[in-house]
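Supplementary notes (optional reading)

For those who missed the lab, this is the record we used. Protein: UDP-glucose 6-dehydrogenase. Length: 469 residues.
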Amino acid sequence: PLKVTKICCLGAGYVGGPTCAVVALKCPHIKVTIVDFNQARIDAWNSPDYNLPIYEPGLEDVVRQARGRNLFFSTNVDQAILEAELIFVSVNTPTKKSGVGAGFAADLNYVELATRQIARVSTSSKIVVEKSTVPCRTAESMRTILEANSKPGCRFDILSNPEFLAEGTAIQDLFAPDRVLIGSLQTPEGKSACESLVEVYNNWVPKQKIFTVGLWSSELSKLAANAMLAQRISSINALSAICEATGANIDEVSNAVGMDSRVGPKFLRASVGFGGSCFQKDILNLVYLSESLHLPEVAAYWRQVVEMNDYQKRRFSKRVVDTLFNTITGKRIAVLGFAFKADTGDTRESAAITLIRDFQAERARISIYDPKVEESQIWQDLQEASPTVPLVDIQKNVTITHSVLEATRDVEAVIIATEWREFKLIDWHAVYAQMSKPAFLFDGRLLVNPDELRQIGFRVSVIGRGETL
Ligand code: NAD
Ligand code: UDX
């Protein structure tokens, strides 16, 4: 198999950036160039003071070690394609907003444009690696496009190598992955290309963790993994509704269930609902795939995972309104956390956005605090969530603050929407002292000890626990 010496990555986002930075760190003999046509993003990756475009614990350290040595960030996409023997395609694949499959199917426009660019520019053979999450059989379409447009003497081998990193722990996940999955055609050429990529990963990942399969299994496994992870959360959240109605405690139920080694304890934490750029998008993608294959029962099964998540968010907002004497009009509410989970500045599909939109619809006054999310991002998300309301009107009722104490001053209720570590260390006595009374606290992340807070004087509502305000 070909020994790879130059790698190019198309897309310098949450996946391409950290993934290929780690490849560069672990493979000093390989030149890695990460390209994007978003100039601002590339400038940030290249910023002298390491003001990187995404926040991810440990990432800065990786970039400091490898940047300028064998890791480069550039907007010169063509040059990087020309040089490379192996190209990762890590471009975005959002849910389609219009046309066939709108609201469900993946928008493969960026993948197709990237593929056509590779075909147009290449003057030598390439291994093209599909890193983006795509519907089953996308590799086949990529191959058709590449072969129909290739120059004489250029051959393209396509691999599928989905990424399983989670945001907030990306570097840890990349350093020690549970597995690396590589799909290829089961032809001698396909297997040889696969071997070349195995050798890249084997610089730091043991062979027994590198799992090689057929192309379509690889593509489907990525959707399946996300669907099954999200399904666990929706299952536990469905049970949290029963707990709230009965007086059972979801923490105890989830521990009891998770102690069964067949189920396992991870990913059973009830919450205000899962967010992030992947779960909903990938499940809807699976739903669309099932429908296209005329498997409506399968489609309905997976769709319910997303519906349960929407229900969980709706249920939480309703509980806030119900508890605050059935009206929050004009009331002040602090929302702690805006990111979709701790340790990331990413807000895509964050439950906080839906909650705040619901509170705005009730004309509450909202103060927000998040330790990492940029202010401009919050305004953009709130505008997108309420497209018919002018931003100036949104800004009349929403303030963005810079600390927990600033956010909670004079408020009637505090909502915990993200499980930031900082929130575990809050001085609740100080918060209570400056709130309107009765002081309400809604924990959407099972973060606080409700008994301790009740002793201070708070009225506390926790996901998955009955009302013992
Ligand atoms: P992102 O939007 O952060 O980054 C994608 C980048 O690709 C953008 O900066 C865009 O400008 C760039 N791009 C688009 N077309 C390009 C082209 N032709 N040439 C160069 N750059 C181009 O997206 P992301 O979160 O990194 O996700 C990328 C893919 O990885 C998606 O398919 C996603 O489903 C998948 N994925 C994401 C995660 C995650 O945690 N975010 C995890 C696993 C898989
Ligand atoms: C997910 C997958 O975990 C990862 O393997 C894949 O590559 C991309 O999608 P990510 O979305 O970054 O990663 O984060 P994840 O840790 O999976 O959390 C997703 C959402 O589920 C978050 O909003 C999180 O708060 C929520 N969650 C997670 C729960 O509500 N309960 C849990 O027990 C776990």
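If you only remember one thing from this example: The pocket of nicotinamide-adenine-dinucleotide (ligand 1) is lined by residues 10-16, 35-38, 41, 77, 90-93, 110, 113-114, 117, 132-133, 163, 165, 167, 277-278 (CB under 6 Å).
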